[in-house]
Amino acid sequence: MKTYSIIDGSESSLKNFLKTLPGVDQVGAEARAAMLATRSIKNASKAFAIDLAISMVDLTTLEGADTPGKVRALCSKGLRPDPTDSTVPHVGAICVYNDMVGIARKHLDAIGGEEIPIAAVSTAFPSGRASLAVKIQDTEDAISSGAAEIDMVIDRGAFLSGRFGEVFEEIQIIRGICGDRAHLKVILETGELVTYDNVRKASYLAMLAGADFIKTSTGKVAPAATAPVVLVMLEAVRDFYEMTGTRIGVKPAGGIRNTKDAIKQLVLVNETAGPEWLTPTLFRIGASALLNDLLQQRMKMRDGRYASPNYVTID
Q1: pLDDT, average across residues 173-181
Q2: What residues contact residue 42 under an 8 Å CB cut-off, 6+ apart?
Q3: What is the share, in percent, of the chain residues with pLDDT greater than 90?
Q4: Which residues pair with 122 in a beta bridge?
């Protein structure tokens, strides 16, 4: 708590704090992530894990060819992933570009999905290359249109140049705009941060500035949500909680495409941050195709056979 209390947001205080963070043991992190990936779970636990993973999905479409019709269909699927089975939970959120937020919100409200939040990618996603004024307007527009979650990108150029105060201030400003109207997820774009040490530093920078979630990636840059990167971020939120008493969520995005991948993520969460993080309020998975595979695996466990892909809506 003492270390946390001396941070005032200045460049010097941030650099001094980040220097105190222990370096990441690259070999150790990769070995532990690989070991946890080998864990198997019983069928009863697998059924629970599949439903939990479905409830954690931020069902996403972030393409230039997105249409209102596609977004409405995605919202319908997010609310009723399997129209033939009312026991399937709804997804954690619908994630879209700003101009689709209003369309998604209106459609969800019309079909009984008021409880599903709309997440909007903001602050010049995915590059982050825009003026602060543009990023502020981007965020305001999203919230005004009905976004309850803002997924912002950090300025990786500023971070890699050592301008930590600039990154911190920008997150704080967007946090202030969100206020109590929207949760803030801060995207680190870990594929561009090069080292695990940088991932740890960026995680702390975002949390100190007021992030509700730290998110691995935009899904537009490879590598994205690798297991060792997620491990480092989970260790960061765990240690941050021990230091401050505040729990911050984690959202891996990019490359998580099937049920096996999703369950590996849940094992990683449970064994690293702890079972308290096994909830959609503290862990989300940014994905599109993942939901189809989760549904097919769920049908297999229910019916004893794999359903044809034709039984699952194709995005």
Answers
A1: 98
A2: none
A3: 88
A4: 152
What would you report as the CA-atom Rg of the chain, rounded to the nearest whole angstrom?
A: 19
193-199 — which CB contacts under 8 Å span 24+ positions? 193/156, 193/159, 193/160, 194/160, 195/24, 196/24, 196/26, 196/29, 196/228, 196/229, 196/232, 197/21, 197/23, 197/24, 198/159, 198/160, 199/24, 199/229, 199/232, 199/233
Instruction: Quote the CA–CA distance of 242 and 235 in Å, as a whole number.
Output: 11
Helix and strand numbers, DSSP H then E, in the chain: 13, 8
Note the CATH number of domain 2-303: 3.20.20.70
User: Average pLDDT, stretch 4-27?
Assistant: 88
Distance CA 259, CA 297 (A): 7
Angle at the Cα of 286 (from 200 to 54), degrees rounded to 5? Answer: 120
**Residue 253 per-residue DSSP state:** B
Distance, CA of 310 to CA of 192 (rounded, Å): 37
**Residue 205, both tokens:** 């920078």
H or E element in which residue 18 lies: helix 11-20
Q: Which residues does the annotation mark as catalytic?
A: 151, 215, 251
Distances (CA, A) of 41 to 7, 87, 258, 273, 303: 42, 22, 16, 19, 20
DSSP element (H, E) containing 130: none
Nearest to 148 by CA among 108, 101, 218, 109: 101
pLDDT tops 90 at residue 249? yes
Per-domain residue ranges of the chain: 2-303
Positive or negative, the Cα torsion across 119, 124, 128, 130? negative
CB–CB of 233/269 below 8 Å? no
